[in-house]
Amino acid sequence: MSPALRRFSRHRLAVAGLVCLVLIVTASVAAPLLTPYTPTQQSFTRRLQGPSAQHLLGTDQFGRDIYTRILYGGRLSVLFGVAAVAIGLAAGGSLGLAAGYFRRVDGPAMRAMDVLLSFPAVLLAIIVVAILGPGFGTVMLAVGIRQIPAYARMVRGAVLVVKALPYTEAAMALGSTHWRTIRSTIVPNCVAPVLVFSTLQIANAILLASILSFLGLGVQPPAAEWGIMVNQGRAFLRDAPHVAIVPGLAIFLVVMSFNMIGDGLRDSLDVRLRDGSHS
């Protein structure tokens, strides 16, 4: 077992987050095997029922099984987070790499990122959705665009640090080409901070996608998505609070799991930390 993996396995909160996330993702993927219902199956004779043996988490205002909708909704939420981060990493990471390595690119690129960062996350996403219209692909793109400036600034900072290290300067002094220096020296030494940052950004992306769906700007009903479920359930908080609370707890668990995994990765990949310095 590598030292980093050993440190991660000793980080109890990170391991708990990883176990929780694996269980949620596995249950979402295996949803057809874990429930006899479909996410859009209605039964008006069973509206707003509480948890029971037949409906483990109760039913919503249309008699749909909330447990089933939570399982299927997990697919969309996790996919939103991963896809948005992939967009942000591809575009923002490339821009940050160029800005950190080539000084002439730095100024214009970072000023453009400052403009994007000046918009609040929800407002920027709403602008994108307003232009392209609500939908699954639009939400991924809107949340992904919000990730670009964050990745650009983070990768730029990591590249500047690695570029100033002695072995990078030595490689450049020995005549290494820009492409070879970036490929063999810069990028490998930026993987760890990017990995840690990505786990935290997935959590932020899932939360932002849920907010857009809650506002009616994301995936549209009757799709099973946690943000939509919270929005629809808030009208029944007095008589059937589980309709809104259960999907809210699902969002909380996934976001918290990614955050705990990110903390564990940060501690385990930081060589300056001694074993046992975290709990």
How would you portray this structure in words?
The chain is mainly α and 279 residues long. The protein has eleven helices and no strands. It is elongated and about 75 Å long. The two termini are 19 Å apart.
Summarize the structure.
The protein is mostly helical.
Structural class label: mainly alpha
- The tally of beta strands, per DSSP, is 0
Query: Nearest-angstrom radius of gyration?
Result: 22 Å
For the biggest sheet, the summary is: none
SSE run: HHHHHHHHHHH
What general form does the structure show? elongated
Low-confidence stretches: 274-279
Ends apart, CA distance between termini? 19 Å
Treating each run of at least 4 consecutive H or I residues as one helix, how many helices? 11
What is the typical, i.e. mean, pLDDT?
A: 86
- The percentage helix is over 70%
Name the beta content range. under 5%
Give the arrangement of secondary structure elements:
Layout: H1 3-9, H2 12-29, H3 31-34, H4 66-101, H5 103-117, H6 121-132, H7 136-163, H8 166-173, H9 178-214, H10 226-233, H11 242-269
Helix pairs in contact: 1-11, 2-4, 2-11, 4-5, 4-7, 4-9, 4-11, 5-7, 6-7, 7-9, 8-9, 9-10, 9-11, 10-11
